[in-house]
Amino acid sequence: MDKPTIKSERRILKDYGATPHPRSGRGHFLKADGSDSQFVWDVKEAEKSFRLTQDVWKKICSDAYHTDPYKDPGLIIVLGGKTELVLIEAMVLKHLRQDIEGLRSEIDHLRRHQGTERPE
Question: Where do the domains of the chain lie, and which CATH numbers do they carry?
Answer without folding.
Answer: 6-88 (3.40.1350)
